[in-house]
Design goal:
Elements (H helix, E strand, L loop, with lengths): L1 E6 L5 E14 L2 E10 L2 H5 L19 E5 L4 E5 L1 H10 L1 E3 L1 E6 L4 E10 L2 E7 L7 E4 L16 E8 L2 E10 L5 E3 L1 H4 L2 E6 L4 E6 L3
Parallel strand pairs: 9-13, 10-12
Antiparallel strand pairs: 1-2, 2-3, 4-5, 4-14, 6-15, 7-8, 8-9, 10-13, 11-12, 14-15
Length: about 200
Amino acid sequence: MGKVTGFRAIGERLDLSRCNTTSVTVGAFRVSMPQVVVIDLEKFMGPSARKFGGILGLDLFAGQIVTLDVADNRVVLEDHRSLAEIRRAATEVPIRLVRAAEGAALTVDLGVPTRQGLLWMEIDTGNYGPSLIDRKAAALVSLDANRTARQDWRVRPRPGLEASGSAVVRDLILDGDLGRDVLRHWLVTLDLATGQGWIRQSEQ
């Protein structure tokens, strides 16, 4: 046992207990994890977390190719054959792999173009509320930096790819956080070995 320290997008520090070397099985997929953390989900996410038994992070699939199908609540494990099919129908988008929490966590940021270059938005399937935008970046995505209530917005990572949803402007420690309200419009395929990403519009 030991401790892992990380930070939420709003800057809140999290000190979590950890367990070392644990096997995790999801369907037919089995992997040995060097460490997992112990977390009080209800304290972290509120009363809605009572329906969850735990959280799986992308670090579980490090080195793999996965598709996030938020609308259908699925993570699809791809291979190079299925990826070839996806690439014929999808649009490649800029992503970067982020190793936070002392390298224990793996998250992915999506590059969203603005007139001043890319904003890097964390892909957060665990965000069931509005997307979050840092106050300093708000104007770059046509949001009012001084407004505290939810605002409607549109995300366009590439021409022809668009999703709408609601967003809240806050002081963050990153450019932004894309929640399920936006992600449900897309099928997001991530190569967690090469750091490449593709998006298709969801049919739902």
